[in-house]
Design brief:
With about 80 residues, the chain is mostly helical. The protein contains two helices and no strands. It has a domain of about 50 residues. The protein is about 80% helix and about 0% strand.
């Protein structure tokens, strides 16, 4: 059974992971914009792959959180 403390600690971890991954995603998006402006197709693909991997990692985290704690983490975990 989950205690209030377990849920509070897990919510803190989830919020921190959300903040970090959104920051990283924004960096990837800026790099993607630069690559598009430069017409660098290889770099465009590289940045798109990074964003998709990060999106998948966020989904796995949210799914694991739900399995472990029987509740979804707060916020929208489907985007970055």
């Amino acid at each position: 059974m989950n205690t209030e403390s377990d849920l509070t600690d897990a919510a803190k971890i989830a919020a921190h992971f959300d903040k970090l991954t959104r920051h990283v995603a924004n960096s990837f998006k800026r790099q993607l914009e630069v690559a598009r402006a430069a017409g660098d197709q290889d770099e465009i693909i590289k940045q798109q792959i990074k964003l998709e991997v990060l999106k998948a990692a966020r989904g796995m985290f949210a799914g694991s959180y739900k399995v472990a704690l029987k509740v979804k983490p707060e916020g929208d975990w489907s985007d970055v």
